[in-house]
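dumping this here so i dont lose it
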């Protein structure tokens, strides 16, 4: 069993690496090959300096750690990051560039010009409701940043992705609760229900990566580790934010879906303690970022009384495996790069393994949840 001191030692290494991941060469994305993009080798995803989903998840993990310490030790970093982007100008509005707004919705009161940052959050929440393209059943279409053009978008027409729940819906729900805006809260709930409707697989208890309304299918029907982890951790964040604000029947539905997924994940944990990047393919590699978010979600489920001690033991095994994948300089190893939807297992197995802000952050989140806070 790893002690608090050992966890904190790992945490400090991971944090320093996260905050010093540096920038990127955006010009490389302008001429990137289709082979590289299929492997997830997109420059904007690397480092901590761009405003996009890897950095948004990274900042969220850093915020959670600051919350554990109960002080403002990372506020200068947050201030510099958000103020710098505000002066520079934000990239195109899409699902993935909404991710940095989740940590901002927790932090804005502690930053200089809090009213300005709150208004920025409110404007993005309104944009999600009124201007983001929607699929049939009014799902949030998974619009992403264009490769090589920070002001452009890739529409992904008629597609919903499980990633959207973490990248945009958690933020919208958070804004609904801090503002008392019922429209925002209701829409966040609607998005969770729509994504469950089209992505949850009743036979396995797992989540598909996406659904296409043009194809009317779940693409290749592959059960991707990190995609599943967005729900495992995201649903607990959602339920905690809602607290007593959810109808009991709706809460029971969401909780039961989480329990079904958790049971499926329990059965699929590999002997290493990690989960494979294709959950149902033992020949695929153990992937650390998805395993970290799964472990964090399971630990939160146990603390909430939703899951029993069997899941705590599974999460503890994962934590040990995750710690073994942290290098001496704090780099989290065996993290798959950004992953588009694929039609077969090989697509996911061929994604490059790279140091990523979200790999650092999700590891932080898992280690934070594993700490004995008594």
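and the seq i came up w/
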């Amino acid at each position: 069993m790893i002690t608090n001191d050992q966890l904190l030692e790992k945490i400090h290494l991971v944090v320093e690496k996260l905050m010093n991941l540096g920038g990127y060469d955006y010009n490389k994305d302008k001429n990137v090959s289709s082979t590289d993009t299929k492997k997830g080798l997109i420059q904007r995803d690397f480092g901590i300096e761009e405003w996009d989903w890897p950095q948004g998840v990274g900042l969220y993990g850093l915020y959670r750690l600051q919350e554990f310490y109960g002080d403002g030790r990372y506020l200068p970093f947050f201030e510099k990051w958000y103020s710098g982007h505000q002066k520079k100008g934000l990239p195109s509005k899409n699902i993935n560039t909404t991710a940095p707004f989740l940590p901002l919705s927790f932090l804005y009161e502690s930053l200089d010009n809090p009213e300005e940052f709150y208004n920025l959050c409110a404007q993005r929440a309104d944009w999600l409701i009124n201007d983001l393209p929607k699929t049939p059943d009014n799902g949030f279409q998974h619009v992403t940043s264009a490769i090589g053009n920070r002001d452009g978008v890739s529409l992904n027409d008629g597609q919903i992705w499980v990633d959207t729940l973490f990248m945009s819906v958690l933020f919208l729900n958070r804004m609904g609760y801090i503002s008392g805006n019922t429209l925002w809260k209701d829409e966040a709930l609607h998005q969770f229900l729509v994504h469950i409707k089209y992505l949850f697989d009743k036979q396995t208890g797992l989540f598909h990566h996406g659904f296409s309304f043009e194809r009317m299918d779940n693409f290749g029907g592959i059960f991707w580790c990190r995609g599943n982890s967005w729900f495992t951790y995201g649903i607990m964040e959602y339920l905690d934010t809602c607290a007593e604000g959810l109808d009991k029947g709706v809460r029971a539905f969401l909780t039961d879906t989480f329990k079904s997924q958790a049971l499926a994940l329990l059965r699929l944990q590999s002997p290493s303690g990690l989960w494979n990047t294709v959950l149902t393919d033992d020949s695929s590699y153990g992937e650390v970022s998805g395993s970290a978010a799964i472990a964090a979600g399971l630990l939160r489920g146990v603390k909430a009384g939703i899951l029993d001690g069997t899941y705590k033991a599974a999460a503890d095994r994962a934590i040990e495996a995750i710690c073994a994948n942290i290098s001496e300089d704090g780099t989290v190893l065996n993290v798959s790069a950004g992953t588009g939807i694929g039609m077969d297992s090989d697509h996911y197995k061929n994604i490059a393994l790279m140091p990523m802000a979200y790999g650092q952050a999700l590891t932080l989140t898992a280690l934070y949840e594993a700490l004995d806070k008594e």
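The first strand starts at residue 144 and ends at 146.
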